[in-house]
């Protein structure tokens, strides 16, 4: 007997879980059935669902849903790393955010996740030389979500931006993998120079709410930036900095601060 090919759901465990949760959500609340079907169950795979969700969020009287959907479909077909990063982001949010109980939630409801995926689309456009379209995406993300990420910035995967209000990431900023940041974080410049002027954030870094990291400085891997800090100098790996201006106040407290999300500072 011929073996049946595995379904796309079976090949993509993140998508499989999202679909199962979508079906359960409709059973629990039939009034959202139309929205859930349109956003998730109508699509054959995660790529299509993500493209549709972004097109619905980013569309405006100036740019139709259909045009944005075509742009997103082309991006995901050309570069599968975009949706691989989105899957990693969903898993990261589920693992780190105690308010996230299902994979379904970031895709449908969390503006931090949606803003990062829209940035990824804008960054793809930027690398293709389609800069005006990239600026349009940046503008819409800022208008919709209060998140302003320049499309030239480089951001890794496994990213969690919790609450995601008033996030600013500058043009030459680089953010590594498995980074967590809370609302009102700025990765900004310090002057009018038109060159490499924004921070470089290592892998596994935790940046607390309201922290400002300014200038072409490096925040070493698996370090912590305390809430409300203003960081103006390099931060060594696996350290905690706090204050205005920020100073080293101790070790990071664990090997993966962005995973544990522990922001307590031991002052002993």
Give an account of the 3D structure.
With 268 residues, this protein is α/β, with parallel strands linked by helices. The chain has two domains: 1-146, serine acetyltransferase, domain 1 (Orthogonal Bundle), CATH 1.10.3130.10; 153-268, 3 Solenoid (UDP N-Acetylglucosamine Acyltransferase, domain 1). The chain has ten helices and 15 strands. It has helices at residues 8-11, 13-28, 33-41, 46-58, 65-78, 81-96, 104-109, 111-127, 131-145, 257-260; strands at residues 147-149, 154-155, 160-161, 167-169, 174-175, 180-181, 186-188, 200-201, 206-207, 212-214, 218-219, 224-225, 230-231, 239-242, 247-251. Strands 3-6-9-12-14-15 form a six-stranded mixed β-sheet. Helix 2 packs antiparallel against helix 3, helix 4 runs antiparallel to helix 5 (65-78) and helix 8 packs antiparallel against helix 9. The protein is globular, with a radius of gyration of 19 Å. 44% of the residues are buried.
């Amino acid at each position: 007997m011929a073996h049946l090919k595995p379904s796309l759901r079976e090949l993509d465990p993140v998508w499989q879980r999202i679909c199962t949760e979508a079906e359960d959500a409709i059973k629990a609340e039939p009034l959202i059935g139309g929205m859930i079907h349109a956003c998730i169950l109508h699509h054959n795979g995660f790529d299509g669902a993500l493209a549709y969700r972004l097109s619905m969020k980013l569309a405006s009287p100036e740019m139709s849903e259909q045009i944005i959907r075509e742009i997103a479909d082309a991006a995901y077909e050309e570069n599968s790393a975009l949706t691989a990063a989105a899957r990693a982001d969903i898993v990261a949010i589920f693992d780190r955010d105690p308010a996230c109980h299902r994979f379904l939630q970031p895709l449908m409801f969390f503006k931090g996740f949606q803003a990062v995926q829209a940035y990824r689309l804008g960054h793809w456009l930027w690398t293709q030389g389609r800069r005006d379209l990239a600026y349009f995406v940046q503008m819409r993300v800022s208008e919709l979500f209060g998140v302003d990420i320049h499309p030239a910035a480089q951001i890794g995967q496994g990213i969690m931006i919790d609450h995601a209000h008033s996030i600013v990431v500058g043009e030459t900023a680089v953010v590594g993998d498995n980074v967590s940041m809370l609302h009102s974080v700025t990765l900004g410049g310090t002057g009018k120079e038109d060159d490499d002027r924004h921070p470089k954030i290592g892998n596994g870094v935790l940046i607390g709410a309201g922290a400002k990291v300014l200038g072409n400085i490096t925040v070493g891997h698996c370090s912590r930036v305390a809430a409300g800090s203003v960081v103006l100098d390099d931060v060594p790996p696996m350290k905690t900095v706090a204050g205005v201006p920020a100073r080293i106040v101790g070790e990071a407290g664990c090997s993966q601060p962005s995973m544990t999300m522990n922001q307590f500072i031991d002052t002993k």
